[in-house]
Amino acid sequence: MNIKTIGMISSYRGLETRGDWLWQQTPNQFGIWGNMQMLALAPKPDFLIMYQFDFPQKSPQKSWLDSFRKPQQPSELNIDSLLRNVDKERIIYLLREPPLDEIVEINNQNYQQAQKYCGYVSGPDDFAPTSDYMPAIWYHSNTFQDLNEMPCPQKVAPCSWITSGISRTANHRQRLDFLQSLQSSEIKFDLYGRNLPVWAKTLGELSNKWYGMAPYYYNLSIENYADNNWYVSEKLWDSLLAWCLPIYYGGPAADKLLPPGSFLRLPSLDEKGIAYIKEVTATPDAWYAAKDAIAEARQIILHKLNLLNWLSNFVTQHS
Which of 206, 269, 294, 305 has the most CB atoms in a 10 Å sphere around its CB? Predict the structure, then answer.
């Protein structure tokens, strides 16, 4: 088999030097999945993925994402020099961030610029040239073999929530308000995360999300955005891969991708939602009822929704 290499560029901080990006998402060595190999820094790749890459903006806007990705200035970036002589039809642009009001203009400008350089341009919103779900990545450090073959870990605690203290958009502030109300309710759950407010009763930041999910029956998986048919993030994949039953707040995309019963729907971020969490987490009964569906969902995430599988299919179609 002729293995095609895929390079990557991104505006997410920390990915510039990640030679092993996504290698943990395949059972094979060195990022190989099917007919392709993920080599992010390859100098002459056959294909190139622009993964949440921010093009230079004529009027750069400050946003909450500045702490996670590097806003590009026209004077400091030559796009052609980053493309490594890959043909346009073999360059993939995947925008990952949801169309929050505060950044939707930036997203739209990225789409417009991407169409000049890329044969395929997609994102999880209705404004994208190709509207589609974001292929799955996850943030557990476990190997693919472990996640694929391991039995369910021992569950010893009721519920966890891993989140951040970002508060620069209305959606993030709504989530923090819900967190404060949930903690005031005295429902038993463990909170982990970075940059959380001083009032938050947190057990700290995690280097591997597995440790804040695997021992728990339930996990609160609350998206930053729940208002279209496309957006679903790693919050759901991480929870299911750790054999949790997610209590999920998000849009309808998850219903189209995962089997019925593999997650629960949090009805709202208010008192009704708090009452729902209290009722569900009072016993592990819902988790036991969902265990088979969770197992099925995990296999779908690992083998079908996996970004590496998506890229392999793209390579097949364009080789």
Answer: 294
Q: How far apart are CA 220 and CA 158, in angstroms?
A: 11
Is residue 75 situated within a structural domain?
yes
Alpha helices in 45-192 (DSSP H): 79-82, 104-117, 144-149, 170-184
Q: Are residues 86 and 228 in the same domain?
A: no
pLDDT digits (tens, 9 = 90+) for 112-143: 999 999 999 999 999 999 999 999 999 999 99
- My answer on whether 111 and 168 are in the same domain is no
**Taking the alpha carbons of 128, 306, 222, 15 in that order, is the dihedral positive or negative?**
negative
Task: Say if residues 174 and 145 touch (Cβ distance below 8 Å).
Answer: no
∠ Cα 98 104 109 (to 5°): 115
> Which residues form the domain of 245?
144-304
Return the closest-CA partner of residue 110 out of 47, 65, 53, 59.
Answer: 53
What DSSP designation does 54 have? P
Q: Which two tokens stand for residue 55?
A: 């093009």
Cβ neighbour number for residue 51 with a 10 Å cutoff: 22
Structure tokens at 71: 């806003």
Q: How far, CA to CA in Å, does 239 sit from each of 140, 265, 312?
A: 10, 14, 25
Rounded-to-integer distance, Cα 194 and Cα 183, Å: 17
Question: What residues contact residue 282 under an 8 Å CB cut-off, 6+ apart?
Answer: none
State the burial class of residue 215 (Cβ atoms within 10 Å of its Cβ: 0-12, 13-18, 19+): middle
Which class for 52: exposed (0-12), middle (13-18), buried (19 or more C-beta within 10 A)? Answer: buried
Residues 2-59: pLDDT tens digits? 999 999 999 998 998 999 999 999 999 999 999 999 999 999 999 999 999 999 876 5
Residue 99 to residue 8: CA distance in whole angstroms: 23
Residue 53 DSSP symbol: P
Report the predicted TM-score, pTM, of the whole model to 2 decimal places.
0.94
Based on the structure, what is the number of domains in the chain? Answer: 2
Same domain, 49 and 123: yes
